[in-house]
């Protein structure tokens, strides 16, 4: 089926778009400012770091663009700001859903799992390592939580039910730090279900949820547009910005 409609705007429409091209930027800045303030008012360390980090990385992105503009002719069109504004709107919905539904319910679930623990790993590690057990427990927590996050993320791409939630994160047309906040609170719920299961071994639900927050913080610097390689051992073991750019890409390889 064909259509004779012209997909390009008329001269009159183009003048209107040009005249109000500043509007998406203003909307994006207002929504972004509201989102940051809402995060700062929670007085939670992870939320504050995440909000400030998004702002700082966006500043770096803008400076990088200004520096390369004269050489590459790269332009920031209005869709970039509209896309960023929509990401902040999704982040606000995510924050409300997370605070009111996901965190309370999943924390209660983790407490219930912990009450039925089949092993008390914290006590065993204290017997073995004494005063150094705190460091050992923290390292183990990072490993098991990141392991759970990896499988939750992988299943989010393999299972259609979970992809329905995770696809929100991949719906952005642009790749920048605002993409990092484009998250469904149901996506987080699935992450925390898997993380909570480690309470069966005696890990504290408070510690599990706290480490999960910092694992999520690591996702923020992955969503930057500039390219650059780390030393090969780091590239081999860790998720890096270049890896994550390929993960979000739509080109056929």
Low-confidence stretches: none
Distance between the termini: 31 Å
Q: How many helix segments?
A: 11
E-strand count? 0
In oligomeric terms, what are we looking at?
single chain
Which sequence of SSEs, written as H and E, runs from N to C? Answer: HHHHHHHHHHH
From the spread of the alpha carbons, the general shape counts as globular
Q: Write down the Rg.
A: 22 Å
Would you kindly provide a written description of the structure presented here, covering whatever features stand out?
- The protein has helices spanning about 10-20, 25-40, 45-70, 80-115, 120-130, 135-160, 160-165, 185-195, 205-220, 230-235, 240-250.
- The chain is globular, with a radius of gyration of 22 Å.
- Helix 3 (about 45-70) runs parallel beside helix 9 (about 205-220), helix 5 (about 120-130) packs antiparallel against helix 6 (about 135-160) and helix 6 packs across helix 7.
- The chain is built from eleven helices and no strands.
- The model has no long low-confidence stretch (mean pLDDT about 75).
- With about 250 residues, the chain is mainly alpha-helical.
- The chain has one domain.
Give a brief rundown of this model.
The protein has 253 residues and is an all-alpha fold. It has 11 helices and no strands.
Which keywords apply here?
mainly alpha, 11 helices, globular
Please write out the topology.
Layout lengths: L10 H9 L3 H18 L4 H28 L5 H38 L5 H9 L3 H26 L1 H7 L18 H12 L8 H15 L12 H6 L3 H8 L5
Helix pairs in contact: 2-3, 2-4, 3-9, 4-8, 5-6, 6-7, 6-8, 6-9
């Amino acid at each position: 089926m064909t259509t004779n409609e012209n997909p390009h705007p008329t001269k009159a429409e183009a003048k209107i778009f040009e005249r109000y091209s500043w509007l998406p930027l203003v909307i994006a800045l207002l929504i972004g400012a509201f989102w940051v303030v809402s995060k700062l008012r929670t007085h939670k360390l992870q939320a504050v770091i995440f909000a400030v980090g998004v702002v700082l990385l966006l500043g770096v992105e803008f400076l990088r663009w200004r520096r390369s503009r004269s050489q590459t002719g790269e332009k920031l069109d209005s869709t970039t700001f509209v896309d960023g504004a929509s990401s902040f709107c999704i982040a606000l919905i995510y924050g409300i859903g997370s605070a009111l539904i996901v965190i309370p319910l999943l924390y209660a679930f983790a407490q219930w799992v912990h009450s039925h623990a089949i092993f008390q790993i914290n006590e065993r590690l204290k017997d073995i390592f004494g005063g150094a057990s705190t460091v050992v427990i923290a390292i183990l927590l990072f490993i098991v939580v990141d392991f759970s996050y990896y499988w939750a993320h992988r299943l989010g791409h393999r299972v259609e039910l979970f992809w329905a939630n995770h696809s929100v994160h991949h719906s952005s047309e642009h790749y920048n730090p605002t993409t990092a906040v484009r998250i469904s609170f149901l996506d987080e719920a699935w992450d925390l279900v898997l993380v909570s299961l480690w309470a069966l071994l005696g890990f504290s639900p408070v510690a599990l949820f706290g480490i999960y927050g910092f694992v999520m913080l690591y996702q923020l610097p992955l969503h930057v547009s500039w390219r650059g390689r780390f030393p090969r051992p780091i590239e081999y073991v860790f998720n890096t910005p270049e890896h994550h750019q390929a993960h979000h890409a739509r080109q056929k390889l």
